[in-house]
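User: For a reading group we're discussing how well predicted structures match intuition. Take Salicylic acid-binding protein 2. Before you show the prediction, I'll give you the sequence so everyone sees exactly what went in.
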Amino acid sequence: MEVLASLPAEEKVILVGHSLGGVTLALAADKFPHKISVAVFVTAFMPDTTHRPSFVLEQYCEKIGKEDDSWLDTQFSQCDESNPSHISMLFGREFLTIKLYQLCPPEDLELAKMLVRPGSMFIDNLSKETLDDPKLSR
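Assistant: Thanks. Here is the predicted 3D structure of Salicylic acid-binding protein 2, as C-alpha cells, for the group to look at:
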C-alpha cells in the first residue's frame, strides 16, 4: 500500500496476486484504482471490497474441517488461544503431492516437502483493517 501511495499521479502498475495474495490485491485495487493498470488474480482468493478485508478468509475458515476436504492433510491451527483469528496453516505431504506439485518433477516435490513451513492466514492483521483506513487513503 505504501508503494502505491508513493507513486507519481501519472504512473500506473500491473499487480498480480496468487493464493492469499488475492486478498491484498483486492484491497489495493479498491484503495488505488487510479494507480492500477491491470489486476490479475492467479488461482487466488478474490474477496469483495464491501466487507472488511478479512471477511472472505473468516468465512472460509468456518468451513474448514466441517464440509471442506479439499485441503486434504493440511493442518490449520490457532497460534494463540486468546486470539481465535490468529490462524496458521501447514501444507501436508498429500496436499503438496496431489494439489500443488502434481505436474512437477519428483525432485521439486521432494524439495517442497523439505522446505514447507507454517504460514499465517493473515486473518488477524486483515481483521484490523477497514476500507476507510486513513493510512490507506487515496
